[in-house]
Amino acid sequence: MRRWVLAMLLGGCAMAEAQLISGELPRTLLPEPAAGVYWTQGCSRTLERRPSAIRRRPYDVLAYRLQLNWVELLTRTGTSPADRVFRGVNTIVVRIDSANVQAIVLDAAAMTIDTVTVNGTPIVPPPQPVGDALTIPLPSVPSPADTLTLRIAYTSRTSRNVGLHLYPKGYYVGRGPAGDSVVVEERIAYTMSEPEDARYWMPCNDAPYDKAQAEIRVLVPEGFEVASNGWLEERRQHPGGVWEYVWRDTVPIPTYLMSVTASRYAHWVEYYERPDGSRVPLWYYVWAPDVESPDTSGARYNARYAFRSVPRMMQAYESYFGRYPFVKYGMAAVQPFAYGGMEHQTMTTINRSWLRGFAELGIAHELAHQWLGDLVSCATWNDIWLNEGGASWSEALWLEWAQGESAYLQRMRRFRDSYLEGMPGVMELPLYAPPMSQLFYYPTTYAKAAWVYHMLRRLLGDSLFFPALRNYMERHRYGSAETEDLLESLARDVPAPPVPWRTFFDQWVYSAGHPILEIVPSVSALDGNTYLVRCLLRQRQEGTAVPQVFVMPFVLRFFGRSGERFDYRVITREREQWVELTLPFFPDSIGLNEEDVLCQVSVAPVSVREPVEGSGALLRVLPQPVVQEGTVEYTLPRSGQVALEVVDILGRRTVLYTSFGQQGRYRLPLHRAHWAAGVYQLRLWLDGECVATTLLQWQP
To answer: Global pTM?
Structure first.
C-alpha cells in the first residue's frame, strides 16, 4: 500500500534515499591495547528478526474520503446524547491483499450505519456494528490486488466524550493562575483518537500500521473555523449560512493522527523561512481573546508569545532530522483537554493552558513528533516507545540547540529522575508491549524511552548516530515501523557497534529495568608515585523481567586530591567483573558516567591495602574543622559489618555509611549536607561494637 499510494500522490517527485554514513565511533568507545578494556564484538549485517506483532486484515486502505456534517452539532447549545448526533459519509478505497476475501471488517462504534455500497452495489440491509466491528459482506469474491470502493453513510451517536469531544460556550473549566474563572470561550467540537478512538467518529481500519491518503470535508455554521490535516484546498459557502472546509493530506496518515477541530476561532498564518528562501506555513487557531496580550507572566493567555519559538524549533529539528516533511504545521488550542498536546499530522491539538507561555518543551515535543511519530509512525501499540521516547528526547535536543549541552544534560537528568520515581514498577515493565492501561505510563514510555535514544546517541557518537537516524526515517518515510525495523536499520548502517544491536535492544527495550551497579574499589601502594587500583563492578538489579547483566560501556572516573582525573573505559559483560589498572596518584574518590547510561550507582569507600599497625581500630577526620567537605579515614583490624554514624549534642544519630568491610584502611568522602555548625561525635561500629570514636567539628 505504501509504495502504491506514494507513487500515486507524489507523482514525479523524487524520493530521497538513505545516505552512506562516513562517521566513526567515539574515541572513548574504540578498542585500545590497554589492560582491562573489554571490547564486545559487534553483530553481523544479518539479524534474526523477532516475529512481527502486526495483525493485518486482508486489505490495505488506500484512501479515506470523509464528509462530516457538523452544522447541527455546533448550532445546538447542549451536550446531551441527542445534542451529539451528527451524520457522516466515509468513502474508503481498499486494495485486497488475500485470496477468498468474502467480507471487509472495519472498526466502528457508537454509530448507526444508514447505507453501504461496494463499488456502487448497495448492501441491503446495511450491516450494523457488533461491538466495535463492522462486517461488510461483499457482493462477489474479489481477486488479490483488486481495488474496492466502500461508501458508508452513518449517524454518530456517542453518549460521552470519546473520539468526539463536545463542550458548550461558558462551560466552567476551573480557576486560572490569577484567580480568575476559566471558561470555554466558544462552543467547540474536536476529535481525539489515540490510541483507538477514531472508530467512534468514523468507520475505519483503526490500526496504526495502516496509513492512507485522507480528504476531510466538514460542514459548519457560519463563523466557525475548521482545522484539520494537510492543506486547506477549499472553503466555500453553501445556502443557509453553511460553510464547507475541504482539507486534504497529500501523504499517508494513520487514523489515530486524523483530526478535526471546529470552533469560532481566530486564525492566522506565520512562516518558518529557510536560508534557501523556501517556507513552511504555520497555521494557528485560538479563541480571539487568547491571540495576544502585553502580559507574558502566564496570568493571561498569549498565543503569539507562546508560539514565538516555533520557527527556531523547526530550524533546530531540521538540523537533526532533515527537512520538515509536510505541507504545513499548525496548532489548534482546545479546552477542556485531558492532555498537554497531541501530534495530529500537520495540525497539533494543544491544551489552551499552553497559551500562557510556560509550555515551550511541550510545544517542542509535539513538533518533534512530526518526524518521530508522524513521518514514521509506530506500527503497533507495542512500539509506542518509538514515538514518545523520540519526542521526549527531542525536548532535550531543542534545549541543546538553543542553550547548549548543559541544558541538554539537565533535561536528560530530569528524565532519569522521572523514570526512577517509578521504582519499583519500572523493574517489571519493559518498554516494548506495555499493557494498554499503561500505554502512556510516563516513567517508561516517555522518560526511559528518551534515555534509549540518548544512549544510542552516546553509543555511536553524533557522526554515526544522526545519519543513521535520518536513514531510518528515510527508509520508512510516510510509513510505519516496528521496533525491529529500527534495530535492522541501525545494524545496516553501523554493523559493528560497541554493544551488539540484538543485545542492546533485548536488554533496554524488550526487558525491564536498568543496571544497578555497586563499585567496590581497593588501592595498593606499589611505590611512592604508583598505585594499583582494583575495582569490582557488581550488578545488583533483580527481577524476572530484568537482565541479570547489562552489557554497556561505562567510564570509571578516578579523582585525586590535587585535582587529578583519569578516565578508564570498560564494557560490562558479567554480573561481577574486576577492573585492574595502575595510577600515578592516589584516587580518593571514584565516579561513573551516569550521564551516558541509565543506571544507579553506589561506590564503596576506597580501601587502601597497606599493613595495619597494631590491632586496634583507628578513626580520624581531615581537615579539622571541616568547612564543607572533608575525609573520614578509618582502619579495620578485622573484616566485618561496618557502620559510620554521626551523633549530635542531643544524641540524635545519622548513619553515614554501612557495608561489609575487609581488614584494611579506608577513606570516605564527607559532605556537610544539612548539618549545622558545631561539634559532633563520629562513631565507627564493627559487627555491632563501637570500636572507635572521634570529634567532628563543622566550621560556621
So the answer is: 0.84
